[in-house]
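Contributing new records

If you add data, match the layout below exactly. Sequence lines come first and carry their own label; structure lines follow with theirs. Keep one chain per record. Anything else will be rejected by the validation script.
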Amino acid sequence: MARHLIIGAVEGYRFGQMAPFFLSLRRVNYQGETVIFHRGIDAESLARLADLGVRLIELPARGLRNPVTGRVHTGQGRFGDVLSLGLRALAHLPGAPALGFAKRFFHIANLRFVMAAQYLRPRLGSYSHVMICDVRDVLFQADPFGFEGVDQLTTILESPGLTIGTSGHYRDWISAAYGAAEAGRFRDARLSCCAITLGPAPEMLRYLEGMARLILRNFTREPYLFGLDSAAHNHLCLHRSLPGLVLRENFEGPAAHLGLAAAEEIRLDAAGRLVDPRGRVIPTVHQYDRHPAVMAALASGGRRP
């Protein structure tokens, strides 16, 4: 029987920082599989994740060590300038060479999409629905796949009024990845957050492969660029590269992003759970830690782990 799959990636966290994600997932009686790509996680934290049934896939340490000096080069600074020349050539080669460098030099937020596509591709028939999402600042209030519209490829917009032109971070990420002209062309366009995307497995594979292609093409720029995942995600949305992709309004779909949301957009029910305008519990909550009132409510009525 095909199962549900959640994919995430973590680097340098201790179990306590990740506990809300995994313990809340267990509380909502999630019956699917969880796969986590990881780097720099201590043995005790890995053991606790394994006890929770998480499938753990280790990534190589970031960078390359100079055998003479012992210094680890991470793809930034002067070494990054030299490295980019080699990566520019590798970007035109299929498969292993580009992937090998991506594992060593890409920020894990970017690398997770490349690895998720590689993981899902040969296992496509094993899963009915897939979600890729952040880990540290995500928790679950209900089954993440138990919502209306689960059979559509779905991602979530940021709150109304937030555009590429008005958001310095998004504008800078898109400019760095695709040029200032691209950011200017879409300056009035709504933003979509790449922290949570989910849908039927075949559609999710198309999304992940689209993200991977865009991310790997950026070998010609600084490999460790933070925000490249957000830039690629919005590129797919703005250029309508994925037919059938549904952009749900924040607080009106299977997930909510709280980081850029105004306090008046946030609704909690009597049990302290985040709800949509119709009073329905929102299954997946991203950036719950950005609002102290939400943190307090989830810690009591919402039973934050």
